[in-house]
Amino acid sequence: MPKINAWVSAARLRTLPLSISGIIVGSSLGAFEPFWKTSIFWLAIITTIGFQVLSNFANDYGDGIKGTDEDRVGEKRLVASGVISPNQMKQAMILTAIITIFIAILLIYGAFGKDHFLFSLLFFGLGIASIIAAIKYTVGKKAYGYSGFGDVFVFLFFGLLSVLGSYFLFTKNLNWQLLLPASTIGLLSVAVLNLNNMRDRQNDKDHNKKTLVVILGVSKAKIYHYALLVLAMFSALLFTATNFQSPIQFIYIIAFIPILLNIKTVYLNKESKLLDSELKKVALSTFLFALLFSLF
Hints:
Layout: H1 3-11, H2 16-29, H3 38-66, H4 78-81, H5 86-112, H6 117-136, H7 150-171, H8 179-199, H9 201-206, H10 212-216, H11 218-242, H12 256-268, H13 276-295
Helix pairs in contact: 2-3, 2-7, 2-8, 2-13, 3-5, 3-6, 3-7, 5-6, 7-8, 8-11, 8-13, 11-12, 12-13
């Protein structure tokens, strides 16, 4: 595999729509505020993509050096296959982190300028926390992805921080009703991770990677998956119902159709590797939800 293709593969571009879904939702909710700027929106998108690519590099590196990816299903991992060396991936992680934090600083300055130093300090801290979380998911002896806490961090960073944080960039305040759409994005993101972990359950178990699926077992992991999706849809519907203006606001229900089909697929699934295509289905459905929710 040519090197440029290897790095594109390691970046796992198919994960990017899911990663920016929360930014789209949070930004749309702050779109009519006086502080809204197009430049802030795009800097937030680029920063989030940077964090996601860093996370993907770190996951490839962490699982690769621990041997977890030796027999995995799905996309080829580059460190485990020897296409990219651990040292090369580590260097790529450092470079990506530096570039991303630089863009994050531009975002923070564009949003808060010199007048909101404490807000700037808070968001800089959140940026550093995002980098640490991206790396520590699989890297290190106490990687939280190996001890069942991956779901919690995905919910916090993909859902709450992504939606509420991007909204705060434009408004300089929080509306706690936004916990509902933030929870929708967070729960759907966790559902994607849960599908990934259901697909890889046996391989993860063999390599002592104690994901929540490994801890719960297949049957309970399926029930957990149904709960994630149902609560995600309910949260979105409740938010729209309490902020109702027009029936067109419910157009995002279109995105729930493949999610409902996913519930059926997971229920009937007997062979975990067949869940690989479902990751893309739920991830793109989340992205579609974000777009339709934001338009109306």
